[in-house]
Amino acid sequence: MVSSTFSEHVALLDTVLSRFEKAKLTINFEKCKFCRPELKFLGYVVNQKGLNVCSDKVRAIEEYKLPSTVKEVRRFVGLSSWYRRFVPNYATIMAPITDLTKGTKEKPVPFVWSESYEAAFLEIKKRLTSAPILVCPNFEKKFFLLCDASGKGLGVILCQNLNGSEVVAYGSRRLSKAEELYTTTELECLCVVWGIERFRAYIEGSHFTVVTDHSCLVWLKNMTDPKGRLGRWLVRLQQYQFTIIHRKGKFNEAPDALSRSPTEGADESPAIDLVTVDGSSSDGWYSELFDKVKSDPNGNKGFKLEVGELMKLVGSNKTGSWVRVVPQELREKVLRECHDSPLAGHLGVKKTFERVKELYYWPKMRIYCANYVGKCEVCKMHKSSQEKPIGSMGAQRKVNSAMQIISSDLMGPLPRSSSGYQYLIVSVCLFSKYVWTRPLRSATAVSVANHLEQDIILKFGAPGILLTDNGVQYRSKLVEELCRKYGIKQWYSYAYYPEANPTERVNRVFKFMMSAYLKENQREWDRNLSPLTAALNSAVHEVTGFSPHELMYGSKLVLHGSLRSLSVETGIVPRMEESEIEPPDGVTKEMRQEVERRLRKAYEKNSKVYNLRKRPCKLRVGDKVWRRNYSQSDASRFYSAKLAPKFLGPFEVFKVLGNNGYVLKNDKGKIDGPWHVSDLKVDNT
User: Fold this and answer.
1) Residues 505-541 pLDDT 10s
2) How far apart are CA 109 and CA 92, in angstroms?
3) Contact present, 213 and 148 (Cβ < 8 Å)
4) How many CB atoms lie within 10 A of CB 203?
5) Which helix (H) or strand (E) holds 652?
6) SS3 helix, strand, coil % of the chain, rounded to 5?
7) Which residues sit opposite 322 in a β-bridge?
8) Using CA atoms, how far apart are residues 376 and 683, in angstroms rounded to an integer?
């Protein structure tokens, strides 16, 4: 048990012994040590400064005589390697001595003790007797991995500052025969790979910095086509989050013996620590209550002092429990432990409050919990709102004649047909609901421009407005020049909001129509496009009450000659007076007014249903919001969109577009959008 103060240590000891008593366990008192400033543990000395070598072990190394046999050499190597983490460049120093142990029973290495062996023997004894103190890793601070490779071995240092003064551990090893043939770049890269994997327990799951004196390694993570062993090493490193920086060799002396500093290891989840309070506090309410209970223990029911801490009884005397009273300055720390810790899980207000009240008390604790959870940026990024989605239905696009507004969209890729088509472009007139379709071999700007010009503009005239999504084909210079040529205004829907494009509704119907005539061979999807398009244009639309063809041409689409009123004798076309010919009625003013009325009625009906599931929200320039994250999964980067934050930000509203559209700006001033309000979450903090 480790604690920062004596009172805390006594309280922890009391808690542990009470648990032993409840579990009916006994301890061997002779083997226990209590309230010690330092302890010997597994051959190390642990104290408030960190990790030290044990003096008994060091004394054995100091008094170790010069080896005279290979067996004695192996014994010394085993003894000294126990403390290799304290010695920079241990493997390189010990290289001459370990060479003596490489023989086998069949082919023993001749034992010849030379000056180089004795120099290494004395040097390692000197290093161990003056070994530095290794600091305990602080997982709230960043890790640095200092790396360097030589022709004989690899050396890394794991530390918590860039100059290498706060060393957590040293690491080194010799090169194999094959590794000695590596190029300088490969050796330095091998050192990085080996160092990261050696200190994996410290750095996995967090971002750390690798420091090297080899500038070529800076491009390691940016290789476009890695091959050979560099490619294999790069794959092994993809699971780690780190940045490589270059430091000149003269400033990288420590890792020249060992190098590399990892980041916090994530294999152990930090426990929820009990926040302890001594008698002194800057909180006036706490200090006053503490003094009252101290001066009159029996006069303040429900409060008591226990090991110098103010406690409160929660519940009745029989079933209640005593919890710590927390002053103002420690409440945020308590909430961090009960909300931010992996054992707390960033849960909601209710669960966080229940966890806090099991151990602590202060006035208006529920409000504190609600405010803290509401301001937590991790929760804002990863949690969806439990309220109704924001954003009422947008304003109606008012049209009173055909070709005022047309919308267009691409569908696909579909199975490549026998004619080579793989995409389908669909356009629709918002007033008449008239539909144009064309199969495409590729979804390019040229194909889109040809469809707009040849199928629509040159046959039906130029529309006033072209409404599309933000696809690169519609935003291309070619389509923009086409619209400029014919005086067409371009409108774009919001990012990732297909509901704003009416063509999406037509696409849904057209997909059903195509699939209804497909059996096993889906490559025939383009066979019936023209008949299906005619069927859609000749059918009476539910909203307008007229067929799209009738609103576009002024007459119904006749698909069979027998439906014509012309009486023809066999082989002879009769002469008819002009008065007998019935011209088409055309689109009358009454028809247009009726369509307008029906469109308005449909909008009012749909908006009423839509708004039942929404809540209105009006944002202003300068408001803070979070924007929905639409990132895609990428197996090559071990990245899953399911585990990614649901929202990004915070952003600032830069511009308001209509009723529900907003252009955003991030903290660096970069413009983002436009976005529909349903993809935004208001930051109320």
Assistant:
1) 999 999 999 988 888 888 889 888 999 999 999 999 8
2) 20
3) yes
4) 28
5) strand 647-657
6) 40, 20, 45
7) 313
8) 11
Question: Contacts for 436-441 with beta carbons within 8 Å, 24 or more apart?
Answer: 436/533, 437/510, 437/529, 437/532, 437/533, 439/526, 439/529, 440/410, 440/412
Residues 6 or more apart in contact with residue 81 via CB below 8 angstroms: 90, 94
| pLDDT confidence of residue 439 | 94
DSSP β-bridge partners for residue 437:
426
User: What per-residue confidence (pLDDT) applies to 262?
Assistant: 27
Answer whether 464's CB lies under 8 Å from 405's CB. yes
String of DSSP letters for 492-560: EPPTT-GGG-THHHHHHHHHHHHHHT--S-GGGTTTTHHHHHHHHHHSPPTTTSS-HHHHHHSSPPP-S
Q: 676: helix, coil or strand? A: strand
> 218-241: b or e for each residue (b if 16 or more CB lie within 10 Å)?
eebeeeeeeeeebeebbeebeebe
pLDDT given for residue 80 in this prediction: 67
Q: Which of 544, 604, 653 is nearest to 395 (CA)?
A: 604
**Residues whose CB falls within 8 Å of the CB of residue 66, separated by 6 or more in sequence, listed in order:** 113, 118, 121
Greatest Cα pair distance, the chain, in angstroms, is 132
Q: Out of 221-225, 320-324, 458-462, 625-629, pick the least confident.
A: 221-225
Contact predicate 148/259, CB 8 Å: yes
The answer to whether residue 258 scores a pLDDT higher than 90 is no
What does the pLDDT read at residue 554?
83
Burial 7-43 (b: 16+ CB within 10 A, else e): bbeebeeeeeeeeeeeeeeeeeeeeeeeeeeeeeeee
Enumerate the β-bridge partners of residue 116: none
pTM of the predicted model as reported, rounded to 2 decimal places: 0.51
What pLDDT is attached to residue 682? 86
What is the bridge-based pairing of β-strands 207-212 and 241-246?
parallel
**For residues 57 and 83, what is the distance between their CA atoms, to the nearest angstrom?**
9
For the purposes of burial, counting CB atoms within 10 Å of the CB of 271, is it exposed (0-12), middle (13-18) or buried (19 or more)? Answer: exposed
Q: At 330, which amino acid appears?
A: L
Query: Would you state the structure tokens that stand for residue 354, as one six-digit string?
Result: 């229940």
Rounded to 5°, the CA angle 589-595-596 comes to 90
Q: How many CB atoms lie within 10 A of CB 247?
A: 16
CA dist 244 and 215 (Å) reads 9
The share of the chain scoring above pLDDT 70, in percent, equals 81
Round to whole Å and give the CA distance between 91 and 84: 8
CA distances, 64 to each of 61, 76, 91, 119, 140 (Å)? 5, 8, 19, 14, 41
Q: Are strands 405-411 and 423-429 parallel, antiparallel or unpaired?
A: antiparallel
Structure tokens at 492: 């774009």
In whole angstroms, what is the distance from residue 171 CA to residue 21 CA?
43
Residue 109 banded pLDDT, cuts 50, 70, 90: low
- Strands lying side by side in the sheet with 44-47: 39-41, 44-47, 50-53
In 34-192, at which residue ranges do the beta strands (DSSP E only) sit? 39-41, 44-47, 50-53, 144-149, 153-159, 167-174
421, 451 contact by CB (below 8 A): no
CA–CA distance, 80 with 87 (Å, rounded to integer): 10
Token readout for 523 is: 């490559």
Per-residue pLDDT at 577 exceeds 60 = no
Decide if 322 contacts 311 (C-beta within 8 A).
yes
Residue 354 backbone phi and psi in degrees, to 5: -65, -35
